[in-house]
User: Fold this.
Amino acid sequence: MRRGRRRRVRDEKIVTEILRQVAATPRMGCRKVLTMICRRRGWRINHKRGERLWKQLRLNARRARAVRKQSPGSSANACDVLRAERPRHVYCCDFIHDATEDRRQLKWLSVFDEYTRECLALEVEWSMDHRYALEVLLRVFDQYGAPEFIRSDNGGEFIAEGLRAGLAKLGVDVKFIEPGAPWQNGYSESFHSQVRAELLDMEVFIGLAHAKQLGRAYRRMYNHERPHGSLGMLTRRTFVTSNK
Assistant:
C-alpha cells in the first residue's frame, strides 16, 4: 500500500516559524533554526527551500548588525593623550581573571588613581556584572572622592547603560579606549602585570575567601610599602599625603 504524500507546508507558515525562532535564538543559524522548527512542528522542509526563504528574509545581514555593536571607544581617550593632571582627576578600572585551586574561575576588579598610582580597590568574586562594578565605584568615591572621569576598555560591564547612568548622576564621565588597544589603558595594564607576577602567579587560592584575604593584603602592601620609581621611590600613600 502506498503511503499518502505529506501536504506541502506553505512558505508563509515556514516564514512565520523562522521569524519566531530567530527572535528567541538570534545567534542561531539557518540549519539549526530549520531543524528546531521541523522537530517542533513535525514538518519536512527541503534544505534548499529553507535556505531560499532564509536569504529572502535577509537574516544573515540582520544577525550581523545585531552582534556587531558599535563600540564607543576612541584613541583620543588614551592615557598618553588625555593625561591625569592631579589627584582624583582620572581613575582607571579593568578586570583580570584567575582561578582557585579547584579551577573555579575568579574575576578581579581594580580601580586605580592614575596620578597618584594608588590602588583604590582590588575586589574579587566568582563573577561580576555592571551592577557590582558600579557598587564598587560608588564605595571608592565615598572613601576617596569622585574623579572627573573614568578610563576603561569596552567591556560589557563598563559600556552598560546602567553603569554609565549611575555615574552620570554624580557628574562622572566614562572615557572608553579604542577597541583592541589595551595599551591605551596603560596604568591598568601595568598594575595588572604586577598583580599577576606578585600575587596571582605566586599564590594558590583555596577558595574565594582566601583570595579576598590575600587581595586585601596585597593592596595594603602595594599602597603602603612598595616604592614607585616615577614617584621618586616614595610609596603611594606617602605621595598622596604629600600632595594634599
